[in-house]
């Protein structure tokens, strides 16, 4: 049945400039396979963690056992075994493990076509992204680079010596942002709760658990002797017009740093994923454009890339995307090494968009970064920064996407009724 006459005109939508939607579709289709790969890597890591530590440098150089091989006890380690064992690690091993576990959003370059139907939205707190683990009477938070932010007692399950309950393997893992002004950990996702893994659960289910399980504890109470920092769930909304307005314009107890979008059907995937997106403009973030080392917005766009052994300059994506290379003479002259993070300036005339990806014809070395930075920019961040300077994705574009989605649903309902 044809749509009714005098139907409102479809709102104008900004044309897509990236291949983000294509990769989103692919990510959802291959989610089960990726999950199996992640579990295999977890089993491999667990084998090495649960086995005795090597007693000599020669033994330390040996590769880990096969992911499918049981450990010395004859058990096939699960994700729960990995997390439980990792909570007991110390030093570089522990930092590396935690650094690998966090899920990082892509930058929203184009609005998803079914934003209202398939996505949640929240106002992202400004602060330090970290992973919080409560186990064996102590709570530890770690930054994205794996280093410890805080070690403290909390009201999370087994997070303090008071009221320890359940088996020693009972632990919880939360994905948080620490907001320093009110010393609060704002929970943006839940990975494990009392030893129950949520890796394979949809985002919609994980957000339900965040709110329901947090109320079962006193973790949201003000700080006390056995509860050093307060925990609070970040409000999640349906990406409807009302939800988008609430996240974008509504008041929050924290300083906003953009909006976070979660695909409702996405599982928790370590690393960068197009099924989680971050978006900013000048209204909901103080930091729309990247600044230089002096805190000023440069006249030319800057990008941070990692130097590889073959001289290529790559992003932090998996697999990485090469934006150029350095010759050996410059590498030696500048005393650079593989793994160094380098800042480059980009001239607008050297940029091309080809098949949804960004190509840079010329990079100008602007300097080497200090060790506090742990990873290069992602391709989506570089493209978002370029678009923010020339053709930004505005809040009006997000509204138009939601309205267009709503009109499609209404049109479908009319056809079904006919």
Automatic annotation (TrEMBL):
InterPro entries: Snurportin-1, Snurportin1_C. Pfam families: SPN1_m3Gcap_bd. It is found in: Cytoplasm; Nucleus. Keywords: Cytoplasm, Nucleus, RNA-binding, Transport. Transmembrane segments: none annotated. Residues 1-77 are annotated as: Disordered. Residues 101-276 form the Snurportin-1 m3G cap-binding domain. One of its GO terms (cellular component) is nucleus. The keyword Cytoplasm applies. GO terms for biological process: snRNA import into nucleus. Residues 41-61 have a biased composition (Low complexity). SUPFAM superfamilies: DNA ligase/mRNA capping enzyme, catalytic domain. It comes from the Eukaryota. GO terms for molecular function: RNA binding. Functions as an U snRNP-specific nuclear import adapter. Involved in the trimethylguanosine (m3G)-cap-dependent nuclear import of U snRNPs. Binds specifically to the terminal m3G-cap U snRNAs. Belongs to the snurportin family. PANTHER family: SNURPORTIN-1, SNURPORTIN1 RNUT1 PROTEIN RNA, U TRANSPORTER 1. This is Snurportin-1. It comes from Triticum aestivum (Wheat).
């Amino acid at each position: 049945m044809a749509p009714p006459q005098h139907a409102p005109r479809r709102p104008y939508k900004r044309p897509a400039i990236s291949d983000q939607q294509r990769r989103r579709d692919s990510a959802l289709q291959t989610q089960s396979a990726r999950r199996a790969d992640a579990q295999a890597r977890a089993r491999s890591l667990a084998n090495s963690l649960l086995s005795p530590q090597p007693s000599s440098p020669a033994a330390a150089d040996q590769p880990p056992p096969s992911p499918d091989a049981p450990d010395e006890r004859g058990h096939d380690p699960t994700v729960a075994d990995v997390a439980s064992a990792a909570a007991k690690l110390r030093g570089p091993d522990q930092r590396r493990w935690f650094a690998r576990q966090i899920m990082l959003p892509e930058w929203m370059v184009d609005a998803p076509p079914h934003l209202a139907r398939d996505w949640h939205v929240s106002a992202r707190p400004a602060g330090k992204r970290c992973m919080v683990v409560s186990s064996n009477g102590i709570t530890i938070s770690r930054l994205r680079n794996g280093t410890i932010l805080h070690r403290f007692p909390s009201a999370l399950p087994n997070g303090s010596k008071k009221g320890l309950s359940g088996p020693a393997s009972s632990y919880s893992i939360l994905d948080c942002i620490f907001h320093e002004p009110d010393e609060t950990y704002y929970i943006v996702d839940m990975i494990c709760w009392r030893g129950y893994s949520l890796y394979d659960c949809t985002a919609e289910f994980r957000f339900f658990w965040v709110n329901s399980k947090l109320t079962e504890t006193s973790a949201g109470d003000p700080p006390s002797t056995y509860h050093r920092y307060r925990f609070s769930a970040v409000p999640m909304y349906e990406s409807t017009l009302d939800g988008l307005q609430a996240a974008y314009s509504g008041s929050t107890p924290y300083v906003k740093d953009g909006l976070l979008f979660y695909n409702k059907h996405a599982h928790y995937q370590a690393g960068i994923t197009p099924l989680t997106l971050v978006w900013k403009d000048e209204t909901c973030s103080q930091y729309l454009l990247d600044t230089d080392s002096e805190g000023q917005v440069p006249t030319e766009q800057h990008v941070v890339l990692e130097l590889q052994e073959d001289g290529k300059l790559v992003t932090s994506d998996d697999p990485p995307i090469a934006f150029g290379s350095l010759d050996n003479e410059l590498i030696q002259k500048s005393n650079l090494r593989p793994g160094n993070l380098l800042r480059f300036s980009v001239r607008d005339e050297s940029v091309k968009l080809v098949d949804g990806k960004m190509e840079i014809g010329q990079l100008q070395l602007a300097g080497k970064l200090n060790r506090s930075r742990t990873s290069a920019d992602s391709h989506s961040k570089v493209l978002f920064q370029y678009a923010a300077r020339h053709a930004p994705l505005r809040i009006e574009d997000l509204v138009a996407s939601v309205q267009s989605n709503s009109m499609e649903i209404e049109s479908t309902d009319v056809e079904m009724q006919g």
